């Protein structure tokens, strides 16, 4: 608990959110590069949430350096929580598509995997992996499902950080 209190102090939570987002993107790219698990359009959409969060948070931290007020830091932490909340929604939708609860969006029909590292494959027509086929499940959740769990935890931590900063426990 002491670690969490220290992490939620001042600017540390926004920086931690950037680091965790970068690690999530690195893990996704590692699965793609080394595991040959190529992303479907919904997988790419989930990555866009992390890219947006990194850009928004870096901009917010730069602006906070110009005017370091507690109110601004509260707003930044709330925005970080809302962006992670968008990640939860996108991951939930993708999981629902994998479980056949929701219909896949246009362009997610699939048709096979592509190997971007093999130059000889450029002669063949490129196909997009299907959004309905999860490559594996761990404890009943696919990669999209676990992404939703991680995003939900990060959203909750963001709102906790915003609340602690608002109450003045973390002076900016």
From TrEMBL:
<dbReference type="GO" id="GO:0006457">
    <property type="term" value="P:protein folding"/>
</dbReference>
<keyword id="KW-0812">Transmembrane</keyword>
<dbReference type="InterPro" id="IPR003752">
    <property type="entry name" value="DiS_bond_form_DsbB/BdbC"/>
</dbReference>
<dbReference type="Pfam" id="PF02600">
    <property type="entry name" value="DsbB"/>
</dbReference>
<protein>
    <recommendedName>
        <fullName>Disulfide bond formation protein B</fullName>
    </recommendedName>
</protein>
<feature type="transmembrane region" description="Helical">
    <location>
        <begin position="144"/>
        <end position="166"/>
    </location>
</feature>
<feature type="transmembrane region" description="Helical">
    <location>
        <begin position="49"/>
        <end position="66"/>
    </location>
</feature>
<keyword id="KW-1133">Transmembrane helix</keyword>
<feature type="transmembrane region" description="Helical">
    <location>
        <begin position="73"/>
        <end position="93"/>
    </location>
</feature>
<keyword id="KW-0472">Membrane</keyword>
<dbReference type="InterPro" id="IPR024199">
    <property type="entry name" value="Uncharacterised_DsbB"/>
</dbReference>
<dbReference type="GO" id="GO:0016020">
    <property type="term" value="C:membrane"/>
</dbReference>
<dbReference type="GO" id="GO:0015035">
    <property type="term" value="F:protein-disulfide reductase activity"/>
</dbReference>
<dbReference type="InterPro" id="IPR023380">
    <property type="entry name" value="DsbB-like_sf"/>
</dbReference>
């Amino acid at each position: 608990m002491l670690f969490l209190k220290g992490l939620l102090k001042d600017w540390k939570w926004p920086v931690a959110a950037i680091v965790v987002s970068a690690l999530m993107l690195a893990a996704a790219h590692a699965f793609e590069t080394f595991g040959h698990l190529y992303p479907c359009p919904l997988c790419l959409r989930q990555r866009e949430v992390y890219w947006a969060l990194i850009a928004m948070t870096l901009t917010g931290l730069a602006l906070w350096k110009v005017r370091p007020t507690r109110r601004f830091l509260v707003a930044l932490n709330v925005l970080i929580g809302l962006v992670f909340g968008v990640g939860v929604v996108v991951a939930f939708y993708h999981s629902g598509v994998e479980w056949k609860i929701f219909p896949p969006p246009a362009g997610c029909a699939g048709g096979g995997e592509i190997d971007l590292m093999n130059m000889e494959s450029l002669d063949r027509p490129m196909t997009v992996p299907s959004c309905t086929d999860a490559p594996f499940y761990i404890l009943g959740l696919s990669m999209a499902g676990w992404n939703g769990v991680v995003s939900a935890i990060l959203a909750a931590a963001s709102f906790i950080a915003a609340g602690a900063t608002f109450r003045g426990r973390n002076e900016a």
